[in-house]
Amino acid sequence: MFYQPSEGHGLPHNPFNAIVTPRPIGWISTRGSDGSENLAPYSFFNAVAYTPPQVMFASTSAKEDRGDTKDSVANIRDTGVFCVNIVEYAMRDAMNQSSGPWDKATDEFELAEIEKAPCTTIACSRVAQAPANLECRLTRIVELEGESNFAVFGEVMGVHMRDDCIINGIFDILKFTPLTRLGYKDYAVIRETFSLNRPGQS
């Protein structure tokens, strides 16, 4: 099968997200300039550079009470900071609860009964029990083709790692089974890893 997105795929559901899988989930916490808290998951998320460490996430829709975007991007525009909280399988229901189109005044930490902790380098809350948190300073917001499509880039200013996830000096993802996003309504967890040496590595 071949299709051009501009002409449609003819299938019951869009296969694009099912093709680009699995995708890590960036559970983005922000604080508005009015002090309100927000927490929302984004599956268009990844690390993009080592030195300095940088990440990105993309928001692809809008809410009526936020104009051309959603709460996360609107808050980041105002404050210039955000925190990425890594999602483990055990927090799947709380993450899903925070994904709703809630009013901008809604605190998703409270809604989903998620414990908050203060960030160290930025004025923002983080998910206290997350396996890791990345405190980020906004570097740029890029408007993408299409309506309400924005890519947000940030430099990682501080890193929290849960102590039980550090084994023999390595951040061991198998201690918390990362949750990943697939297509449609589907998710997956990572429960097995293997290593490969690149050519020339020993």
From TrEMBL:
A Pfam family of this chain: Flavin_Reduct
SUPFAM superfamilies assigned: FMN-binding split barrel
Top-rank taxon: Bacteria
Domain Flavin reductase like, chain residue ranges per copy: 18-173
Listed GO MF terms: FMN binding; oxidoreductase activity, acting on the CH-NH group of donors, NAD or NADP as acceptor
InterPro entries per the UniProt record, alphabetical: Flavin_Rdtase-like_dom, Split_barrel_FMN-bd
Protein name: Flavin reductase
